[in-house]
Design the sequence.
């Protein structure tokens, strides 16, 4: 193999030329003379092989990348890529955990409302179904004796009334909306009790916890009075809140613990028929 052929091979490997185009004869000759003074035949052959090997390696790598793309296979990730992927996955998990915690955590602001509406068994279901209500507890409010019991309140020797305490999220339901639900559970024109439950402990009342609640309750009561819904005057009292005591466990969500007895009592008291007459379907 001549020196010129080696040089042409070297140029072909480095430049990537196809070798089909004719070389300038003068330039080829000058190049031959120039390089013949610097390299021996064996040196030039070594250089040619080195470039040829590098070119073949690069071609093989390019071919492998193309096969990866065609087959849908991902190339092997470097350590840096793996670290970046791990960090991204870790941050994603942190974001998902924070979102789940925010969803399950209680609202930043929780308020309570206390209403008396006759038998506390009967007024609990409607509030439990209301969106924005977090918890309901039936109990006693309005008296002064500590730790009242059902027997004590039922003796009608105290000022306690069967009541319900409602914990709610004001961002989802307002105090005024709670009052709208409350009015539909009672007979606001009855002053001696509620329906067939007669006595001081069954009298209806709205226990306000602030001046704002008092104002909202008075406005709501006046709105109901002018609605034409009832011919008799609205006599439900609006009173300052006093300490609320939860009732015994067997009274909590009685409609779930004893559904058959609850339904019979609710219908038998006349509450359901009153609601249908004045509000249509049971609210």
Sequence:
């Amino acid at each position: 193999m001549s020196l010129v052929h080696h040089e042409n091979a070297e140029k072909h490997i480095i430049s990537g030329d196809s070798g089909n185009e004719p070389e300038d004869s003068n330039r080829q000759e000058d190049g031959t003379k120039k390089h013949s003074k610097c390299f021996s035949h064996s040196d030039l052959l070594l250089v040619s092989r080195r470039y040829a090997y590098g070119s073949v390696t690069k071609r093989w790598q390019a071919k492998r990348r193309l096969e990866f793309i065609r087959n849908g296979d991902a190339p092997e990730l470097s350590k840096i890529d793996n670290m970046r992927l791990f960090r991204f996955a870790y941050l994603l998990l942190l974001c998902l955990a924070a979102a789940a915690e925010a969803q399950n955590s209680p609202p930043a602001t929780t308020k309570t409302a206390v209403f008396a509406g006759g038998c506390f068994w009967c007024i609990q279901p409607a509030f439990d179904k209301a969106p924005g209500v977090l918890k309901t507890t039936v109990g006693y409010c309005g008296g002064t004796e500590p730790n009242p019991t059902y027997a004590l309140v039922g003796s009608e020797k105290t000022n306690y009334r069967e009541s319900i305490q409602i914990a709610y999220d004001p961002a989802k339901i307002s105090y005024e909306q709670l009052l709208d639900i409350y009015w539909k559970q009672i007979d606001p024109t009855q002053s001696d009790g509620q329906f067939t439950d007669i006595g001081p402990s069954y009298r209806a009342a709205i226990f306000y916890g602030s001046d704002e609640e008092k104002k909202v309750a008075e406005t709501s009561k006046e709105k109901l009075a002018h609605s034409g819904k009832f011919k008799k005057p609205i006599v439900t009292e609006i009173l300052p809140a006093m300490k609320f005591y939860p009732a015994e466990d067997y009274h909590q969500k009685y409609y779930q613990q004893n559904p058959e007895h609850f339904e019979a009592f609710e219908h038998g008291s006349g509450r359901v028929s009153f609601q249908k007459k004045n509000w249509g379907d049971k609210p």
Q: What stands out?
A: The longest helix spans residues 41-71. The mean pLDDT is 80. The longest strand covers residues 133-141. DSSP finds eleven helices and eight strands in the chain.
